[in-house]
Design a protein that fits this description.
alpha/beta, Rossmann fold, 6 strands, globular
Length: 247
């Protein structure tokens, strides 16, 4: 008797991919960063546009480390923990109200379900933040708890993208062969994470509002250089790509 192979699973990033949350959360992080500059002087500060461009897809702890990398004033672990918690609380308060699905995503998820294709969510964000976003964007039904994976909460030790751990963990939990998975990512760290995990097909998505129209070409090139084989500007373009792969 032939053994069945594990099913193909489409693994979606969350922020900026299925939920258009990056600008909302990064604006909140930017405001906090400018506020704490007086308490912790020496940070490299950016205007909002550059902040969004530079730090999309990165957890706030990493943002703080980069902002203060050349500063003579070091943040203590307690300071970082307090600021990361504050950023999380502020972001969730805004996301609860403003988060929306990226254009075309609900229809794509419904189509995948109708086709019997499995999919899941693989994110750096905390489960608390994911829950707020999925509820506000009315996507909760597509990503139940056993299909939602957080590098912040789902792993024994937090190891965010670009490390491959959360992708490997998700595939293991879903009993999916990593070689049969497809990843959909909007950030360099996400693409690098999927590639490092051994996912053979990585799709770069550049349709989120945090990527301006003038930046899409350069972002697409950067995602391809990081390992994305295909680039889509609209989420519905994913369907023919998957059909082609299946064929």
């Amino acid at each position: 008797m032939n053994l069945l192979q594990p099913p193909k699973v489409i693994l979606f990033d969350h922020d900026g991919t299925v939920v258009d949350s990056e600008t909302i959360a990064l604006k909140s992080a930017w405001k906090l960063t400018t506020e704490i500059a007086s308490e912790f002087p020496g940070a490299q500060l950016y205007d909002l546009t550059e902040f969004v461009k530079r730090f999309a897809g990165k957890p706030y702890e990493e943002i703080l480390v980069q902002l203060y990398a050349d500063s003579s004033t070091a943040l203590s672990e307690a300071d970082i923990e307090r600021l990361v918690t504050e950023e999380e609380n502020r972001a969730i308060a805004q996301l609860n109200v403003e988060a929306r699905a990226t254009e075309g995503t609900p229809a794509v998820l419904a189509d995948l379900g109708d086709r019997g294709l499995e999919f899941a969510l693989v994110s750096n964000s905390s489960l608390r933040r994911l829950s707020a976003c999925l509820t506000a964007s009315e996507l909760t039904g597509y990503f139940p708890d056993d299909r939602t994976f957080s590098a912040h909460d789902s792993l024994p030790v937090r190891r965010p993208k670009p490390l491959p751990d959360i992708y490997l963990h998700a595939a293991k939990c879903l009993n999916a062969d990593i070689l049969g998975c497809v990843a959909v990512e909007d950030s360099l760290s996400g693409v690098k994470s999927a590639v490092a995990a051994g996912i053979p097909q990585v799709v770069g998505y550049v349709g989120g509002t945090h990527i301006s129209e003038s930046e899409r070409s350069s972002r697409a090139s950067a995602l391809q250089a990081a390992g994305a084989q295909q680039i889509i500007e609209q989420m519905p373009d994913l369907i023919p790509l998957l059909a082609e792969a299946a064929g």
